[in-house]
């Protein structure tokens, strides 16, 4: 995500600190950002038909209470300008704001709402569990049930450890890779986000591997100088890093469909090549499926691609809207984790019964016949309709979807890596985003984010969205 630095001031995804954005260039880009946000405000004032009086007041008050008015940076709408929308409630495919506006929601709490917001079945299980206790801090059978579901569905997973967020899953899996191999270095890819732990906050340089430099104040060089970066979809770059660091690389971690630089699809041969090169070098391959897990397919992206990593991280969907993360892999590797083995990792709320019941019910629903086919059908119709409308209105647009994950760039494409993604016209994206809000469609407030659909998005919602897109493309 380093490249986004040039024109962005906000991390692409949540904290997206990643969004390497950042900080290093924050000062430099600060003035530009202010100008941009004034521009966006002007756009909003001139054209807005959306009443955001209460949202604006709440967000203004929040800025005195929470840093930047939010608890995760991307929510502040900085990269699209205009104030953020403050939610009152969510249900099925819809979000309702404090001013009484309704939106078709394609963020879905950044992924977890795959069965629809406030799903009745998930809620019923949660309500029943609350009366039995919300946190045990002791073993409970629900952990076995969800753990076994994960093992049965995800090809790489023979043992699993639950934790509380995707960030925690990724930082823990990094420790597993190092503990298992006895090596320190890892390879990650430009534009892939793996949570906000120090070793992953690396400025991704262009070209071939570079030694990582900390991407945020507060991250010591020592924490990132074992993180090597390569461009996504560039197997030769990865091979070169392996050659230059023989016997030193613990593993390779990547998003098996990128959602954190916008929606970017890997070449299957790239994933297969990573599988080969890691095995040949005694290194581990980890798919970060925090976003793609149980979204791309019942057995996650690894099942979809037919490439089995050694380790997998999960989050979002697996908690059905409750805070959760998980990492798993081959038994032989996972047995390094305490107390089976010497690698320490723990959590007061890990495996808590609320997250477990929400996860179990969510995976039950997703396991029913036709779930992924339905999401595929709806999402393909959605993105094709949007792309057609954009092209018909004379815009350069490209994009696509896999099942319930999709994305759109304002450039001709193809977009194969983060550098390609930065060709997108982000000013136009900002106008598109605000325009869609005004039409009742809630999209992720950054060009560098994927969109999500779920089982509750209806054909009518998709048609409504395409009609909204036509109107907005005509005026941006
Ligand atoms: C691929 C990926 N990994 C890790 C994370 C971090 O997860 P969390 O926000 O739950 O800490 C995210 C969050 O969006 C993600 O998309």
TrEMBL record:
This is glutamate-1-semialdehyde 2,1-aminomutase. Pathway: Porphyrin-containing compound metabolism; protoporphyrin-IX biosynthesis; 5-aminolevulinate from L-glutamyl-tRNA(Glu): step 2/2. The keyword Isomerase applies. It catalyses: (S)-4-amino-5-oxopentanoate = 5-aminolevulinate. HAMAP family: HemL_aminotrans_3. Its EC number is 5.4.3.8. GO terms for molecular function: glutamate-1-semialdehyde 2,1-aminomutase activity; pyridoxal phosphate binding; transaminase activity. One of its GO terms (biological process) is protoporphyrinogen IX biosynthetic process. The keyword Isomerase applies. Belongs to the class-III pyridoxal-phosphate-dependent aminotransferase family. HemL subfamily. The lineage of its organism: Eukaryota, Viridiplantae, Chlorophyta, Mamiellophyceae, Mamiellales. InterPro entries: 4pyrrol_synth_GluAld_NH2Trfase, Aminotrans_3, Aminotrans_3_PPA_site, PyrdxlP-dep_Trfase, PyrdxlP-dep_Trfase_major, PyrdxlP-dep_Trfase_small. Pfam families: Aminotran_3 (PF00202). Keywords: Isomerase, Porphyrin biosynthesis, Pyridoxal phosphate. Its cofactor is pyridoxal 5'-phosphate.
């Amino acid at each position: 995500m380093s490249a986004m630095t040039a024109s962005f001031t906000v991390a692409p995804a949540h904290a997206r600190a990643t969004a390497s954005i950042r900080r290093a260039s924050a000062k430099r880009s600060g003035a530009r950002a202010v100008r941009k946000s004034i521009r966006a405000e002007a756009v909003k004032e001139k054209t807005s038909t959306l009443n955001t009086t209460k949202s604006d007041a709440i967000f203004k008050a929040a800025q005195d209470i929470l840093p930047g008015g939010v608890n995760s940076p991307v929510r502040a709408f900085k990269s699209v300008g205009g104030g953020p929308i403050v939610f009152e409630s969510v249900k099925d495919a819809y979000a309702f704001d404090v001013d009484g506006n309704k939106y078709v929601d394609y963020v879905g709490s950044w992924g977890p709402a795959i069965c629809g917001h406030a799903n009745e079945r998930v809620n019923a299980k949660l309500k029943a569990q609350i009366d039995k206790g919300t946190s045990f801090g002791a073993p409970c059978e629900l952990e076995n049930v969800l753990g076994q579901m994960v093992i049965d569905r995800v090809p790489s997973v023979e043992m699993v450890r639950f934790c509380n967020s995707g960030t925690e899953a990724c930082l823990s899996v990094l420790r597993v890779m190092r503990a298992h191999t006895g090596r320190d270095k890892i390879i990650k890819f430009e534009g892939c986000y793996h949570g906000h732990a120090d070793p992953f906050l690396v400025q991704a340089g262009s070209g071939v591997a570079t030694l990582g430099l900390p991407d945020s104040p507060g991250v010591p060089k020592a924490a990132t100088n074992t993180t090597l970066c390569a461009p996504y979809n560039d197997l030769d770059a990865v091979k070169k890093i392996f050659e230059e660091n023989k016997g030193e690389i613990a593993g390779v971690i990547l998003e098996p469909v990128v959602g954190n630089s916008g929606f970017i699809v890997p070449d299957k041969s790239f994933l297969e090549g990573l599988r080969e090169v890691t095995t040949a070098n005694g290194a581990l391959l980890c798919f970060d499926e925090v976003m793609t897990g149980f979204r791309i397919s019942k057995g996650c992206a690894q099942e979809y691609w037919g490439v089995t990593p050694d380790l997998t991280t999960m989050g979002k969907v697996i908690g059905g809207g409750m805070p959760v993360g998980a990492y798993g892999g081959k038994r032989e590797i996972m047995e390094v984790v305490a107390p089976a083995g010497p690698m320490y990792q723990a959590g007061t709320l890990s495996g808590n019964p609320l997250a477990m019941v929400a996860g179990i019910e969510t995976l039950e629903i997703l396991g029913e016949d036709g779930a992924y086919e339905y999401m595929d059908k709806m999402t393909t119709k959605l993105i094709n309709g949007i792309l057609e409308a954009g092209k018909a209105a004379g815009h350069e647009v490209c994009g696509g979807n896999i099942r319930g994950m999709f994305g759109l760039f304002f450039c001709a494409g193809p977009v194969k890596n983060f550098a390609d993604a930065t060709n997108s016209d982000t000013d136009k994206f900002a106008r598109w985003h605000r325009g869609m809000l005004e039409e009742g469609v809630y999209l992720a407030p950054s060009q560098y984010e994927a969109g999500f659909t779920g089982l509750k998005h209806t054909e009518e919602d998709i048609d409504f969205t395409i009609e909204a897109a036509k109107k907005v493309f005509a005026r941006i």
